[in-house]
Amino acid sequence: MNKKRALGVLAAAAVAASLAACSGSGFGGGDSTQNSTAPLNILIGSSGDAETKAVESAVKAWSDKSGIEATVTVASDLNQQLAQGFSSGNPPDVFYMSADQFSGYAANGSLLAYGDDLANKDDFYPSLVSSFTFDGKFYCAPKDFSTLQLIINTDLWTAAGLTDADIPKTWDDLTAVATKLTSGTTTGLVIGGEYARVGAFMTQAGGNLMNDDSTQATADTPENLAALDYVKANLTSGVFKYAADVGAGWGGEAFGKQLGAMTIEGNWITGAMTNDYPDVKYKVAELPEGPAGKGTLAFTNCWGVAADSGNTEGALDLVAQLTSTDDQLAFSKAFGVMPSIQSAADQWTSENPALEPFLLGAAYAKGVPTAQGAADVVSDFNSQVAQLKTGDPKAILTSTQANLEALLK
Amino acid sequence: MTVQTITAEAVADAPRGQPDRRMRGERPTGPLLPRILIFVVLIVIAIIYIYPFIIDVSTSFKSESEAANNPLGIIPQIWTTAAYERLFFSSDFPTWFFNSAVVTLTVTAGRVFFDSLAGYALARLQFRGRSLIFAGLIAVMAVPSVVLLIPKFLVINQIGIYNSYTGLIVPLLADAAGVFIMKNFFESIPVSIEEQARVDGAGTFRIFWSVVLPMARPALITIIILSFQGSWNELAHFIIAAQDPGLTTLTKGVAQLSSGQLSQGSQFPLKLAAGAIMTIPVAIVFFVFQRRILNASAGAVKE
Amino acid sequence: MTATAVPRRKRSALRRGQAISGWLFTAPILVILGLFLLVPVLMAAWVSVSDWSGRGSPLSPNVNFVGGENYAELLAGGGLAERDFGMSLKNNLWYVLLVVPIQTAVALSLALLVNRKFLRGRGFFRTAYYFPSVTSSVAITVLWLFLFSTTGAVNQLLSYIGITGPNWFNDPSGIFHFGIEQGPPLLTDNTALGVSWWDWIGGPSVAMSAFIIMAVFTTSGTFMLLFLAGLQHLSEDVEEAAMVDGANPWQRFWRVTLPQLRATLFTVITLGLIGAWQVFDQIYTGTRGNPAKTTLTPAYLSYSSAFINQEWAQGAAIAFILFAIIIAFTIFQRWVLRERAVSKRRMRWLNVKTPKARSSR
After folding, report:
1. Residues of A whose CB is below 8 A from C45
2. A11–B contact, CB cutoff 8 A
3. Is B133 helix (H, G, I), strand (E, B) or coil?
4. B100/B108 Cα distance (integer angstroms)
5. Domains along chain A with CATH numbers
6. Other CB atoms within 10 Å distance of the CB of residue C345
7. How far is CA B172 from CA B7, B154, B283, C30, C210, in A?
8. Surface-to-core class of residue A269, CB atoms within 10 Å of its CB (0-12 exposed, 13-18 middle, 19+ buried)
9. What residues of C are in contact with residue A385 (Cβ under 8 Å)?
10. Which residue in the set A4, A253, A275 is minimally distant from B132, CB to CB?
11. What's the pTM?
């Protein structure tokens, strides 16, 4: 029996070897042959119907003008589909690339570094450009950005006897206001229990998980500790709650269902409120200042182009179109994001006066860590911060520091 | 799927001829109270097992707020088909259903054919290497499917069937357990029938196809049931075999729906409606064939 | 009809024909199994000892052999990879330790209850208990997420008897911690595989417990059928003899029925073990490892390392370690359940007449 097993294994090895022989050509190198009329595949991670429609119509307009066929696909799990696409040798041509996944793909050569060739490359906000620079090369064009600010339910606000003068300017103000707004099933402030929300407090205290160009791990600092202590104290007293604890999927849902009178969210909340909770009236206010002043987080994605794309020329033309002022302002109108080019700032503000606090945040916003592998560390941080109410902030920061340092070795 | 297969085999092998007191005309003796107690216990347990599905269906007809406020109620205060409308008109659910149906039917037909072929060969045909194949099948059945998740993806890529119906269907035809079921069954068919056919001049395939296979109906039905259930309920393979949204099957689609695809809220009526609909085909197959699946003592005990 | 009547030449031609048919008939299955079961295992083995980063073919010349580096990273690396792996092992270990015995016991109890001859409506009960097993794990998980949500059916039921149910799928506290939030320093400071001893003994989290209940719900029906089939094989005479010898029902069950079900028990436990160590569908559909990574399992970690974080080699390594664990558990339980000769002293204690004594009556 053993001999026969060995025979079987040998046969399998032979099969594997022959697969190896014929595999070398099938990957990577094969389809760099460029065809400037080849159809393009665009993969996006949409925040809802509004965004999908906006992107589809912009792409269609370009497609009609250029004569190149282009299809937009909405990913149900963008990271997974990108990873699968790249490893199967079949990636989309143009896709959303988030700042925290960017370095991994840049490092293994999946992305085309086209940023330096863009006509409008000096028009992008510098902080956004640095988010998408790897190894000194500017890889991809930021498509838009959002910042976090405070969203307030105006009806509940006035019902609690508060006025515009009460909009919180400091952390203590925020606690006081949240206390007043907490009653019945409504909690003063309901936010997502993750770095992408709690991190705003960390920046207000003067800290962040990493420094601005993600070359140093700065998780274990007194500033971050102050921020986490502040959030923990309010979670314990019950005036802050996490969305998951009230049965909501994200802060916006809790806000829309009036389980929270305030929330901290970014520009995307405008689309969700219009579509899903149109009866809730809200206003956007700047987040309060922490011990170190104003602070918030900025989120951005870029238009990634696959290095193996069969039609790089078409892809770059499409990206140039999609980052132009007109297209970016159209996207803003549809789902509230802010244009990534500075020249469009004034027009955006005049078109969206109620959303001005978001743009004001651009001046003092910090970005998410972009070191390779940081996304994994951040999700570990998230799983710990989700239990902040019963957890130990110092321990959370210490372990995150260790994890981040391990990335930089 | 090995679990279901082994169950099917065991159930099929259970003796049918057990004489039973009742058959012999005797009354079951023994005190009444324990029997009533046991009956009540069984009823309560049965309710526990069935009630969740009733909740599933009834919640799919509730509004979201009612689903949150009145989770145990079976009759919705306000009947609404909003969840179903959203499911059928604002999502890719019909595509998912179609894909699942295509894959399941093809895989079932394929498995029935290939498993019976191989099972017959192992049972009846004498050829060198037969025991090697047999040993290989056993070895292969021992590999847990989780080990195959990543590498199957790599292989599917390498041979170029990624992102296609072929990639969804062909790997699922790999079914060592089914071969065993067919082999065991064919071994139980008297050899004389085949000998007769051979004397009459029939070739091997002819014997297999026209003589033996029609007699294998019970085993074939078992394979059909198992393949249908297995491929309809399969998830991991569909995750790795394709990324084109047009190739999403029910399991993958509902799983992604559950992690919040159609906007980020927790839309329970919608998700439960999806779950209910995807359970219907397997439930139908189950009820149609349930006597075969469950009936271990077909001839002996009257129900 | 005997074969000897067939002339020799015809017989060898017959043999050849059979050989060709034999290979032809088994060819499709062999090709498919080889391609999609055998080759993947070999390829995964290679990837797990290489540094393939996800782009291009893993068999290309750019990919290097790195030996046990990936395995070392997982088992002793000291970083996030080891901690995640340790967490997933801890979660799945408790899951196995709770699910397998409970589902075996429940399945056996149900089988014994349903097997009563006086029972009417037996078919109905069998159908009811087996039905959850035919449904897809995706559908059941979605249903479970609803039933066990904060405002779900289970919590409402609990409130009827005065208990405030936890926020099931969001509660990461270990059930064997009994609400104690901080463990003793001895246990919290020392770790194995990156997870503190306090966490190791804490048992599954509340969220994982919901999954454990779900597993028992969906698999007890299948195993009940196996036990029923096994019970049908038992002859009544042995049971009657035990009754005559004066054994009460409890003794009859443990000393007479159960040992005879040894084979079925072995099957059920083996299948239960193999299934419980591969929890993936429910995690992918439901919690994806949350809360606080307490529903992370090695199978899901293998998938997410590879497909989401692009750590293909690590994912493959996790899969093989899991393979080894499953085999180890299976061998162990086979050893535990092996047939052992009953010692004479035990037989006397059981008051079982030895064959010699019986024949001398």
Report:
1. none
2. no
3. helix
4. 12
5. 40-146+299-366 (3.40.190.10), 149-286+373-408 (3.40.190.10)
6. 8
7. 20, 15, 21, 13, 30
8. buried
9. none
10. A4
11. 0.83
Rounded to 5°, the CA angle B26-B32-B33 comes to: 160
**And the tokens for C310?**
């692009």
Q: How far is A7 from chain C (nearest CA, A)?
A: 13
Q: For chain C, say whether A32 makes contact (Cβ under 8 Å).
A: no
Mean pLDDT on A57-81: 88
* Domains in chain C, CATH or no CATH each: 93-287 (1.10.3720.10)
Residues of B in contact with C130 (CB under 8 A): 293-294
Are the CB atoms for A64 and A35 separated by under 8 Å?
no
DSSP E strand stretches across chain C: 191-192, 195-196
Detail the DSSP E strand segments found in chain B.
none
Q: Decide: A92 and A306 in contact? Cβ < 8 Å.
A: yes
Q: Walk me through the domains of chain B, giving residue ranges and CATH numbers.
A: 92-294 (1.10.3720.10)
Is residue B286 within 8 Å of B207, Cβ to Cβ? no
Tens of pLDDT along C152-167? 889 888 988 988 888 8
ipTM above 0.85, yes or no: no
Residue of C nearest to A382 (CA): C292
Give me the torsion for CA of C105, C107, C110, C115, rounded to 10°: -110
Band of the pLDDT at B120, cuts 50, 70, 90? Answer: confident
B63 vs B272: CA distance, rounded Å: 12
The predicted pLDDT at position A371 comes to 85
- CA torsion sign, B117 to B119 to B124 to B125? positive
Q: Is the dihedral of CA A390, A394, A399, A401 positive or negative?
A: positive
Instruction: Give the C-alpha separation, A405 to A218, whole Å.
Output: 9
- Mean pLDDT, range A144-155, rounded to an integer: 92
Top-confidence range, A59-73, B26-40, C168-182: A59-73
CA B196 to chain CA centroid, Å, is 36
Per residue in A293-339, pLDDT tens? 999 999 999 999 998 888 888 999 999 999 888 999 888 888 778 89
Residue with tokens 């041979």: B159
When CB atoms are compared, the residue of C292, C306, C309 closest to A376 is C309
In angstroms, the CA A242 to CA A389 distance is: 10
B39-52: b (≥16 Cβ within 10 Å) or e: beebeebbeebeeb
Q: In 3-state terms, what secondary structure has residue C163? A: coil
Nearest of A103, A75, A83, A44 to residue A318 by alpha carbon? A44
- What's the pLDDT at A29? 40
* Tokens (6 digits) for A146: 């959002």
* Angstroms from C98 CA to nearest CA on chain A: 25
Percent of chain B with pLDDT over 70: 84
